[in-house]
Specification:
Structural class: alpha/beta
Number of domains: 2
Oligomer: single chain
Number of strands: 8
Order of helices and strands: HHEEHHEHEEHEEE
Number of helices: 6
Strand order of the largest sheet: 3-7-6
Distance between the termini: 35 Å
Shape: elongated
Largest sheet: 3 strands, mixed
Strand content: 15-25%
Length: 194
């Protein structure tokens, strides 16, 4: 999931953990959109209709732990002003990590792709290399081969590592007491059929 700002999901989580889910909002516009990654990460649940102060969401135990670790003692202004508060900017970055998981390095993504290619095309020889750190191609993987499968077939195997709707997690990592997805940090896969 890619999002411009984690400020409003953070505001929803903070309010839910403090017992009033909409406390840090000026408007309820897109409230459920802000809640989606929190629900998926198990940080909030839908509030009971009889809840005295939460309109839509309450924090889970995991959400309360995130609040205690990252939000205790931070300013209590509305979310629209949080981009000026370093502690809240850091908390939003940590929330993104909890919700999206970790990125797999390009080198490890290349090794993962090598395994996928071996499984998809047994007996075929592939050279799979990751880009050099710091350069323009730092998050690029190059796949070279001769003969064997068509370029489209190799592209189909590589597609889940690339940004976009087909990108899939390639594993899981334990962060903050929960298993989170590991997503490849690859921007491009160059295919060179010799």
């Amino acid at each position: 999931m890619s999002r411009t700002s984690w400020t409003h999901p953070l505001a929803l989580l903070r309010g839910a953990a403090e017992g009033e889910d909409i406390r840090y909002f000026r408007s309820l516009l897109h409230l459920h959109t802000h809640a989606a990654p929190l629900l998926a990460a198990g940080l909030v649940v839908r509030a009971d209709v009889d809840h005295p102060t939460c309109l839509a969401y309450t924090a889970t135990g995991r959400g309360a732990r995130f609040h205690a670790q990252h939000l205790a003692g931070t300013p209590t202004t509305k979310a629209n002003y949080w981009d000026r508060e370093p502690a809240l900017v850091a908390a939003a970055a940590e929330l993104a990590r909890w919700c999206e998981g970790e990125e797999l390095s390009t080198a490890r993504s290349a090794a993962h792709l090598r395994g996928l290619l071996r499984a998809a095309f047994p007996g075929e020889a592939f050279t799979v290399r990751s880009g050099r750190a710091g350069g323009r191609a730092a998050r690029e993987i190059t796949v070279a081969w001769s003969g064997g499968p068509a370029e489209e077939q190799v592209a189909d195997v590589a597609r889940p590592l690339l940004p976009g709707p087909d990108r899939r997690p390639v594993g899981r990592v334990r962060i903050g007491g929960a298993d989170l997805p590991v997503t490849p940090a690859v921007r491009a896969v160059r295919l060179i059929r010799g």
